[in-house]
Backbone:
């Protein structure tokens, strides 16, 4: 089947798109979108890929599934559209950036500005039913996004992977730690952050240092 996704990813993931599980996943997603409210909007399901071509990936941030409230999800993990209040995890991400890099707390929660610099903001599940967190888990998205992580690990080098919380850390088995830089910490959600597992991880300055040491432009977080 034909998937509307940025050209470099279409080529890299061609094998996945031809698998039976992916056809079944797309049938499920089409049914869900036709028969209820789902997020993100259909044309933004692959936004993370469309904004960050394969060869431009410098940093990978792994989330779980999209925000399930109206107007929030825009296809990039942790990101919300301009004008939408910042969800608690994003607030804590911005607080850490502000402290780590000694810069003002960002006004916009729209992380397209990161994606355009080479930050792949990858949810492991790319869709969700409105108001029902986790409702599209175990339908095939995880197999697809695991393949994405493995492709980056195998075919790129010197990529920074930010793994936040137990779920994301579980993806480390897909990543060659000799070829890439893996940063791990607790999740930025209030439950984890307020227990001391998030703040002070300095992931953003550490990522930039690694990129610069390897001849790449740092990210303007």
Residues:
């Amino acid at each position: 089947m034909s998937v509307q996704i940025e050209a470099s990813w279409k080529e890299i993931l061609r094998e996945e798109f031809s698998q039976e599980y992916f056809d079944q996943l797309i049938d499920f997603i089409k049914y869900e979108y036709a028969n209820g409210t789902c997020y993100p909007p259909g044309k933004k399901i692959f936004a993370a890929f469309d904004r960050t071509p394969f060869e431009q990936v410098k940093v990978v941030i792994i989330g779980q599934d999209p925000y399930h409230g109206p107007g929030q999800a825009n296809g990039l993990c942790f990101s919300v559209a301009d004008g939408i209040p910042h969800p608690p995890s994003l607030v804590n991400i911005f607080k850490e950036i502000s402290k780590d890099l000694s810069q003002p707390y960002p006004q916009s929660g729209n992380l397209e500005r990161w994606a355009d610099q080479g930050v792949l903001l990858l949810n492991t599940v790319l869709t969700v039913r409105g108001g029902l967190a986790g409702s599209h888990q175990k339908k095939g998205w995880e197999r697809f996004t695991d393949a994405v992580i493995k492709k980056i690990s195998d075919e790129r080098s010197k990529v920074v992977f930010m793994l936040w919380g137990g779920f994301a850390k579980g993806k480390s088995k897909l990543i060659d730690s000799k070829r890439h830089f893996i940063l791990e910490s607790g999740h930025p959600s209030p439950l984890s952050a307020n227990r001391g597992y998030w703040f002070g991880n300095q992931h953003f300055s550490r990522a930039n240092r690694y990129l610069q040491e390897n001849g790449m432009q740092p990210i303007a977080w």
Observations:
- The longest strand covers residues 59-63.
- Residues 95 and 143 are 32 Å apart (CA to CA).
- The beta strands are 38-39, 59-63, 119-123, 128-129, 160-164, 181-185.
